[in-house]
Write a structure and sequence with these properties.
alpha+beta, 8 helices, 7 strands, five-stranded mixed sheet, Beta Polymerase, domain 2
Length: about 270
Amino acid sequence: MPDVLPQSIVEKVMDLTAPVEGALLVGGQALNFWAERYSEKAPELSDYAPFVSKDIDFFGTGTVAAKIAERLGGRVQYPKENDHTPNAAVVHATIEGHELEIDILSNVIGPPADKLLKQMVIMDFPMRSGGDETAIALAVMHPLHCLQSRAANVITLGRKYDVAKRQLNAAPIVLREYISEALGDGSDPNRTRVATSVLKSLDAYLQTDIVGRRLHMRMKNNPLGVIRAFEGDPRLDERYRENQLKRMITDISARQARDRNQMAAVAMGQGIPR
């Protein structure tokens, strides 16, 4: 497994890059941020820790890369014309004796490209390594996009190392807690709309996306469990739970059962029923 960066290094990079407009924290470090945030409310997250390696990835442009390099005292390496890479650039920097390669991605596999920046979340990133805890405002990839990107890592790209699988299994727990946090006490209709919008997007992903449809067969934590977690939640209107939420659960359950049956038929050499 790749080495894990010391927390002090991660915090310093976040502190220096946070002011860079257009830089969005993605990948394993984004998932780790959310997992740390919800670790007390969801202690089962510890079953899948650690979530990060030595990688720090941002979604952004070549201009963003140049600004990050300047703030880190590093240099930018841009891809050559014939390079087939999702990177807009790579920033090389040395922080506290650690040589870092920070990927600035022009594309993140999994989430819809047009929604990455539109649905990013600005959150307080805790700074703990210096003694007294402080926080900085940081743009972080949305938890639903964390699930989609971790799923694409394992299913589309075929990543088989342990940290990729742990990240994938932690992602639904993170998403569940994000929706719960968005709901608050259920009295604010704006917060409720945020929560139900995420549930609707998750429903569409699990039913229509080619990767989303396969997830339940490739991980321990079926993402359908995220929706089931709110089936009896009194913070959501009873009519919503009895209509939309129940319909989501019924439809996804039926589709997942069909997919499992098809896979079983293939395994038995019967082909896929049409």
